[in-house]
Design goal:
The protein is of the alpha/beta class. 37% of the residues lie in helices and 26% in strands. The strands form two sheets. The protein has a seven-stranded mixed sheet, with helices on both faces. A five-stranded mixed sheet has the order 3-2-1-4-5, with helices on one face. It is globular and about 55 Å long. The relative contact order is 0.16.
Length: 244
């Protein structure tokens, strides 16, 4: 069994992969890494191979590496962005500076389609990336996710309290609802604008893949056609694991 790990800013996602087995799970990073892993993975069978990508802090990543090595005597193989991998070419000016979660998601998307693709990852940050039919990552946009947008309003103003609102209607009748609706509808609008821009570059056959923790919330407000793939990064890690 392979253990595939996507260590993000706010969540830990993983998949157990073997012939006939694909089991994915996730947990919030609300506790210290050793105690969190003691609770989550204590009864997990020892994996044959561990393949991991991380955009979290180096402290969290090193704590995870130390835990799995002590528990299973397996050294994780850390994935990093490259100039080219599995049919995807990285056109960043400095390819190694591309966020590894974005890189792995692009590889996952390439495994799902030979058409041009737009990958929308709705996590702590939202990224909208363009992949040509030839497998070239042409670039992408990065902006704050829902939580960061809402927190910035609370922290940057004196009159907006830190309360959860109802994002159902953009004609909100309270400040909390206005913040919830404004950030959600605004985020959906920004993503749709980028999808439209990418269609002009990549053509009408471009497919849109939606992933990340806030994807279900955003999907309800997106008018653009899209395919939800909650485990897109893990799918990309599985493809990489097959080559290691």
């Amino acid at each position: 069994m392979n253990l595939l790990i996507d260590l993000g800013n706010s969540r830990l996602k993983w998949a157990q992969q073997a012939p006939g087995l694909w089991r994915t799970e996730a947990a919030l990073l609300e506790h210290a890494m050793p105690s969190l892993l003691d609770r989550l993975w204590r009864d997990m069978a020892a994996p044959r191979k561990i393949v991991m990508c991380s955009v979290s802090t180096s402290e969290r990543m090193h704590a995870l590496e130390k835990w799995v090595q002590a528990r299973w005597s397996v050294v994780p193989q850390i994935v990093r962005a490259q100039a080219e991998q599995l049919g995807v070419q990285n056109r960043y000016r400095q390819p190694e500076q591309l966020g590894v979660d974005r890189w792995v998601a692009l590889i996952g998307a390439r495994g799902l389609t030979s058409s041009a693709a737009c990958v929308v990852d709705c996590g702590t940050a939202v990224t909208v990336d363009a992949l040509s039919a030839d497998g070239e990552f042409l670039g992408g946009a990065v902006f704050p996710g829902l939580r960061l947008l809402r927190d910035s309003l609370v922290q940057g103003t004196a009159g907006i309290p830190a309360t959860e609102g109802d994002a159902t209607d953009c004609l909100a009748r309270s400040t909390a609802d206005g913040v919830a609706a404004g950030t959600l509808f605004g985020l959906a609008g920004a993503v749709e604008r980028l999808i439209d821009e990418y269609h002009h570059t990549l053509g009408a056959t471009m497919r849109v893949f939606l992933t990340g923790g806030d994807a279900p919330v955003l999907a309800a407000r997106l008018r653009a056609a899209h395919t939800p793939v909650p485990d897109l990064v893990l799918k990309g890690l599985a493809m990489i694991a097959d080559t290691l």
